[in-house]
Amino acid sequence: MRWIICLATFLFLLPVPAHAANPIDLTSGFYVNPNSSPAVWARNNPGDSRASRIQASIGSKPIARWFGNDANIGSTVANYAGAADGNDKLPVLVAYNLPGRDACGGHSGGGAGTPAAYRTWISSFAAGIGTKPAVVVIEPDALGDFECMTRAQIDERNGMLVYATQMFQQKAPNTYAYLDGGNAGWVPAATMASRLNAAGVRNVRGFAVNVSNYYTTSASVGYANSVVSALGGGPRFVVDTSRNGNGSNGEWCNPGGRRLGVTAQVGGGAEMLLWVKTPGNSDGECGVAPTVPAGQFSPDLAVRLIDGI
Fold it and tell me: Does 193 map to a domain?
């Protein structure tokens, strides 16, 4: 009997894991990053006639912040999620640091130097969020690039993605994390479902579609529902609506004639509609911005998206 009492006392004294909660319910709306690239550009160029329009239409809206290689990623993420939490708002973050990322597109290459370095990075990323509420999109393009990779590279990547999902599951209980699931015009839904399964989608909330692309919300929701059906139900999904107001013309790299989509909201056919890509940030030196490197803000691109030209 004594050992049973001792065991019960020991179990009582063990730390209790944080209870997983819905981050939407824990907050009062989406976080607006005051230091997004369009907001900073508008603030630094008050004399430019485009500044007020860019700030009103883009810089003042909730936009995801992307995080790449950073030796202090844990504290960087903690500070950002903490700023949002201090304002009772829900931040959207993007983990974008896989070795060999953007294998097919080539414009956004880079990432961690080794799989081991990536594991350290993503573990610190998740720990930086901790119990704070957040939404995270995990590694855009990671499951769509397979045609440019060997079987060994695919297996290595899947191992890193599974590890990433486990880290958010274990270290960020109040985060809704979504593996990137490509877009409606890239990988067939049944194929993407298989890839998501292999990458650990069951460990997290679900998957994201249309990140950095232009497909309409209805096309993206239809595609995502087909992926869910192929998965046998379960995972939820979010849609990137940042630049899909005019839909896709079949081009992905700074095409002209695109338009801003609806701003961040809960619902809309998906679990959430989000601005994951920052409107005005270039896709690469291509399309209507042939001299603007990937990730760099262009006021011309921003105004084009505002006007739909």
Answer: yes
CATH number for the domain harbouring residue 197: 3.20.20.40
Sign of CA dihedral 52, 54, 55, 56: positive
Instruction: List active site positions.
Output: 141
Which ranges of the chain does DSSP label H, i.e. alpha helix?
2-13, 37-44, 51-54, 73-86, 115-129, 151-171, 189-198, 217-230, 299-307
Residue 42 is part of which domain span? 22-307
In a domain, 130, yes or no: yes
Q: How far apart are CA 131 and CA 85, in angstroms?
A: 10
Phi, psi of 83 (to 5 degrees): -60, -40
Cα 248 versus chain centre, distance: 20
- What are the pLDDT digits (tens) for 15-68? 434 457 899 999 999 999 999 999 999 999 999 999 999 999 999 999 999 999
pTM score of the predicted model: 0.92
Rounded to whole angstroms, the Cα distance separating 64 from 198 reads: 26
Cβ pair 305, 274 in contact under 8 A: no
**289 contacts 300 by C-beta, under 8 angstroms:** yes
Those residues with Cβ within 8 angstroms of residue 130's Cβ, 6 or more apart along the chain or in another chain: 78, 81, 171, 172
Give the Cα separation of 307 and 309 in Å (integer).
6
Give the pLDDT score at 276.
98
What's the pLDDT score for residue 12?
A: 37
- Domain assignment present for 180: yes
